[in-house]
Prior knowledge:
23 helices, alpha/beta
Amino acid sequence: MASSTRRERFREWMLEGLSDMAKQHPGPHAQAPKEKGQRWWRVMCLTGLDYFSTLGYQPGIAALAAGLVSPLATIVLVVVTLFGALPVYRRVAQESPHGEGSIAMLERLLSFWQGKLFVLTLLGFAATDFMITITLSAADATAHLVENPHLHSALSGKQVMLTLIMVALLGAVFLKGFSEAIGLAVVLVAVYLALNVVVVANGLWHVFQHPHVFHDWTSALTVEHGNAVAMIGVALIVFPKLALGLSGFETGVAVMPHIEGDPDDTEEKPTGRIRGARKLLTTAAVIMSCFLITTSFITTLLIPADQFRTGGQANGRALAFLAHEYLGSTFGSVYDLSTIAILWFAGASAMAGLLNLMPRYLPRYGMAPHWARAVRPTVIVLTLIAFLVTWIFNADVDAQGGAYATGVLVLISSAAIAVTIAAHKAGQRNWTIGFAVIAAVFLYTTAVNIAERPDGVKIGACFIAGIMLVSFLSRLKRAFELRVTDVVLDATAERFVRDYQHRPMRLIANEPNNRDLAEYRDKLHQMRKDNDIPAEDDLVFVEVTVLDPSDFEAELTVRGEVLHERYRVLSLQSSSVPNALAALLLQVRDLTGQQPHIYFEWTEGNPFAQFLRFFLFGQGEIAPVTREVLREAEPDRRRRPAVHVG
Length: 646
């Protein structure tokens, strides 16, 4: 008994906050209490966990990828950031202010299964971006820990184990109930940026004090590339390799629901939230751009090239190398500690993004198990995936850079395309041309990155294939759920139903064709004959029009009408005929207290083909599927509406 109680408590704890509206009849989602919004600059620090923490490894990766041209390529990256990514995501914040990001904008352009599959593909790349953020940040935090002079001998060779521990600790924080610890994020970001200001200022001062360093760099550039035009050309070619410096924008719009709005903001028009999000994006981009240029400059000039390579002391930790080299072991250790903390906690920003993004799409597509609405089971799954990714990449920062950049660039490219289409639809010609140019730049950058580092597409494809497979199996398993969030009857339909307070309501399922007098007369005659229904029993027709069969759950609206002055008809619009009929029958039962009856004709055709029609197009063999949906929704046979097939 005690063990059973413990199991129940554990289950309640694990599924806390679960709200699966497909299992409820009727009624909408259970709405969680709204959290009070935070000032935009505090939320910026949450985004900064991902964005600013890339300083821990970005300068080293840039130097390794671009060599002496790294500062020039970084300037190109900053131009693309300020005049490309920033305008795009400021528009995304305006068009999609509820945290769905550019995926929601593109989702509205496509319907039916092609829209769902397209969204699942983008979610695969989003999962790549956020998941690699977790593993890459943890791996680089481990690199800073291992390379610390005081700890190197004790921790050397244990990178994978230490990275797994960091990922596990991050998962443990969320299992305990962590919910965007913005206060901690503010402290970590403020301390980290302040320490970086010291490192950058010291590095610039060192370059100023030793002008030969700058002269040596420019001389080497001239020898290697000849002239300024060639240098700029090389910088334009190699800047896609620096795409990690563009991370953080998608996270910026994902956390928008946490931004405090104006007192008169509404969910339909959150003007204050949009304004705060734009301030967040702009401020973060400007701060990061300044750091990207200065850190790339000082690391390229002050660190020997061989130290950036695998096994070198600056590999994955260029700024930490400068902190130890020029500011002493004590300051270097403090800098390491700050870097380790923000890199580890950068995974919290990514985890929060995943927990915010996935439940917005997969469950309402019917493409996730019902427990996916609960945070803790999802955290466990994501943590296990992070373990697998860490093991596959051997906790190597450089090896994961390609996959991370691919996820970032695909999402930014899709956002650029989305805002281009939005501007075109709004009739904004100049913005349309500008966004189209930006989209072309990002598509080029994405293509170059994929060509040079195809491992990013490979791991992205693995995430996409995994999401597709799980989605298909989940939808197959949940095919017979009620899948209706609420049933709303108009005045006429409600009057029809209220007439049956003291007798069972009898419905005839009819597939509407011409809807002429002969159709209803012949159908009524046939159903009375097939089911031996007495002439004195009045019957009501019910008709379902399938809208988008790829939708999994939605509100059901019932419209009543009298056709040809004698036939009462209930008209429904839904994504699935059987699920809509089952929901209507249960609603009639609840309103009248009587057990309703519904009458069908058998559908001709192969049963397996009919099931595929139901699964893909919401139709198929209606009668047995309606009965199965009712059986799952109402286990008590005495209260279950009756299904008759003649």
